[in-house]
Amino acid sequence: MEETTSTSSATHADHGSFAEALRRQRGRESQGSVARRMGYSPSHYSNVENGHKPPTEGFARACDVAFGTDGVFVALFLSSVGTSSRVTVKPAQLPPSPHLVGRVAVLQELDRLLDAKRDNPSADVVALDGEAGVGKTTLAVAWAHRIKSRFPDGTLFVDLHGYAANGDPVGPGEVLEDMLKALGVPAQDIPTTLDWRAALLRTVLNGTRTLLLFDNAARIEQVRSLIPASPGCLVIVTSRRRLSGLAVQYGARCLTVDRFGQDDAVRLLRDVVGCERVDAEREAAQRIARFCGGLPLAVRVAAERVAASRHLTLADLAEDLSSADHRLDTLSPYDTDEAVRQVLSWSFRALEPAAARLFRLLSLHPGHEFGVDAASALASCERSETCRLLDMLAGVHLLHEAGRRRYRFHDLVLDYAVERAAADESHADTERASRRLLYWYLRTAAAANLVMSPNRPQVAVEGLVMLSMPQPMSFSTVDEAVAWCETELANLAAATQHAALHGIHDVALGLPMVLSDYLYWRHPWRVWIGPLERCLDEARRCGDRAAQGWILNNLGNAHLAQHRLVEAGNCFGEAAALRTEDGDRAGQVWSLLGVGRVLQAQGGYEPAADKYDHARTLCSELGDEWSWAIVTAYLADAHRALGDHRYALDLLAQAITVFRARGDRQAESCALDKVSDVYRDQGDEVASLDHLNRALAASSAVADRWSRAELPRKLGHRHRDLGDCERAHRAWTEALLLFEALGDVRAAAIRTELDTLEWKAVPVPRRAG
Q1: What is the pLDDT of residues 505-556, one digit of tens each?
Q2: Is 734 a residue whose pLDDT tops 70?
Q3: What is the pLDDT of residue 462?
Q4: 3-state DSSP call for residue 367?
Q5: How far apart are CA 576 and CA 550, in angstroms?
Q6: DSSP assignment of 269-324
Q7: Which of 3, 262, 281, 551 has the largest count of CB atoms under 10 Å?
Q8: Edge-to-edge strand order for the sheet containing 211-217?
Q9: pLDDT at 548
Q10: Mean pLDDT of the chain
């Protein structure tokens, strides 16, 4: 892991204090062993422990996690360099404050619990439980907004999807990763294990006053690792079940959110329908409130039905509810699910047939959120008509508009949609609809890849044709293709896993192949490793050895990006063996390249060069000039590491000639970056900077936006090391803008680097909000 040194004015003696503490803590354990646990190179660790190199806050955090010292090393670091070098991130993740009806007594009780004097050594915890549809989330978010000024270090919000009908609850490891990134921890400093991530969260929040809201927890295990130790923090948890374990372990105050009383239910009717209409039919309003059993979701859906129609009176609706002949199910105020199902049926039964069908089919979507085009594919419907139907569903609150032409179900509404699809659609119809969507994702991903990687080998998917196959989306620019992949990232992973689970072989194995370039650039492994492993199981079940090779290579890239070198080597090695046995020389090239990359990451430059040489020979035999050039660039980097600079430059010149002839600016940019590294190692900073600037210019229109953003960051380091703070500031400012546009957590690390510069000419751009 690379580490940027601080430019603060901390004295050598200060660094020595940190180093002395490090030596004491290490004891008899080897430096190499500690470095591996921390995720740093042994040489870097040795330099810090021997006082030759100052520590950074990221290094100090890694020390605290590795040794379990609970902030000791961070405190030493801050005392030596001052707090100015620390990244100050104040998250503000609460959803918009909802309009809260009633709940005055509950809010007063929550305020009383917060104000109560407690001798609690860790964070305060308040757990709100209650039945489905009772308004726990609305209450929790409204209260959080009411008290957020008391937590000046920020607010964090996570939907744990504890009772989502589609997909599994969110695991604590995934939540911890997202929270740490939101708090400014660089991605490379986030540990891989749950316990270390939890320890790092406690370190980061130590001494802060931060509010954390965890919504829709299914069980205490989802929350246990997320609770900070700092007594200044507050944790709010909502769940359908009472989480008594939180009270036992953390002294949580558990509060059950009850249904509305009659007055509050009528007040909600007035809020939605309007005071005049409700006051004109007070008795009918009282009857509706009683039939809804005080369940806020039921009251709101009933009110929306009246509000949406000028002709439906409250008396009409009350009469429908009172008569069993006009009810699809029995509305029971003692059974939440039955109450919600009944009330949802009112809106559903009022839909025109096309909207009702779309509502049912949307429940087949494997992701949490979807767009218009995916909905069109499911229903085999024109886009304009789909937009009209989606607007209708959102208008009666059967769908929630999550963004511009993006939609999602409330969990309870999704449960109802799944039931209606099972009851009203034949198995053959749902099977066809699901396949339409999955093949649409596959073909659209292929169209995006063709625009993003036009010079690279493409996976053929046009032979996958079925009855009523929807047309895939088309993309005019690289920006459009990348934006679609970013928007659909989680859905593509969910579609891949769904296809694997249901034996839809073409899609399960096709999507990882089509998206391999994008996945390699983007590194979205948190959401993709699981689907890839499912796909590998499917490929093995089907005996598809070619697909196994592709997926193993993708998994190798995933593990390598996360510094899991043993797992990466196993994946690449198994893929290489399969492809060798099958005579797949083209595939063997990429697996050998992966094996070489792992060896090089382990410091085995000579064996890595041997693997690259073998792969180059295969490329020459196949007449594959482009793959030959890619492997040649990697071979050059291995020889650079071995000190054979002249040969490395010669190899890179050969590779660049091929890339330019093919118009592959992306590969050319990577090769020029490697040339810059050779000149840097030779001590020729002028040539190194020149080639790094050429790499930056070549990358201006490429699809790999993440590597494109990394180049000015690297350029800033070079200028800073040469003492040119003005150019370093300019380069890092450009990198910051690029990473912020991508929503990449590395933006926070660049802010730290900018803060260490002694020269500043322009304000550092900040993300709005």
Answers
A1: 889 888 998 998 899 888 888 889 889 999 999 899 888 898 899 999 999 9
A2: yes
A3: 61
A4: coil
A5: 10
A6: HHHHH-HHHHHHTHHHHHHHHHHTTT-HHHHHHHHHHHHT-SS--HHHHHHHHH-G
A7: 551
A8: 155-159, 211-217, 234-239, 124-129, 253-256
A9: 92
A10: 85
Are 202 and 229 in contact by the 8 Å Cβ rule? The answer is: yes
**How far is the C-alpha of 155 from the C-alpha of 148, rounded, in Å?**
7
Residues near 249 by beta carbon (within 8 Å), at least 6 away in sequence: 220, 224
Residues composing the chain: 769
Residue 243 has pLDDT above 70, yes or no: yes
CB 338 within 8 A of CB 330: yes
pLDDT score for 13: 41
pLDDT at 319: 77
CA 570/CA 109 separation, integer angstroms: 57
Side chain identity at 737, as an amino acid letter? L
- Written as six digits, the tokens of 145 are 């907004």
Give yes or no for a contact between 629 and 648, defined as CB atoms under 8 angstroms apart.
Answer: no
Tens digit of each residue's pLDDT (9 = 90 or more) over 334-344:
444 445 676 67
Determine whether 96 is exposed, middle or buried from the number of CB atoms within 10 Å of its CB (0-12, 13-18, 19+).
exposed
For residues 676 and 688, give the distance between their C-alpha atoms in angstroms, rounded to a whole number: 4
Cβ neighbors of 162 (< 8 A, separation 6 or more) are: 169, 216, 217, 218, 219, 222, 239, 240
543 Cβ partners below 8 Å, 6+ apart? none
Q: Give whole-number Cα distances, 168 to 230, 441, 508, in Å.
A: 30, 22, 19
Q: What is the pTM of this model?
A: 0.68
User: What phi and psi, each to the nearest 5 degrees, are found at residue 406?
Assistant: -125, 140
Q: What is the pLDDT of residues 28-54, one digit of tens each?
A: 888 989 988 887 888 888 888 888 788
| Phi, psi of 663, deg, nearest 5 | 70, 25
Count other C-beta atoms under 10 Å from residue 152's C-beta: 12
Tokens of 664: 């592959």
Q: Identity (one letter) of the amino acid at 227?
A: I
Dist CA 179 CA 91 (whole Å): 9
Chain CA centroid to CA 250, Å:
29
In the block, residue with structure tokens 């509502």:
359
Q: Tell me which H or E stretch contains 754.
A: helix 746-756
Judged against a pLDDT cut of 60, whether residue 89 lies above it is answered with: yes
pLDDT tens per residue across span 186-232: 776 777 788 888 888 888 898 889 999 999 898 899 999 999 988 88
**Model confidence band, residue 400 (pLDDT cutoffs 50, 70, 90):** confident
3-state SS, residue 126: strand
Pair of tokens at residue 646: 């002249």
Residue whose structure tokens are 């005392």: 79
pLDDT value at position 5?
36
| SS3 call for 242 | coil
Nearest to 297 by CA among 61, 477, 131: 131
CA distance 249 to 247: 6
- Which one, of 126, 184, 107, lies nearest residue 153 by Cα? 184
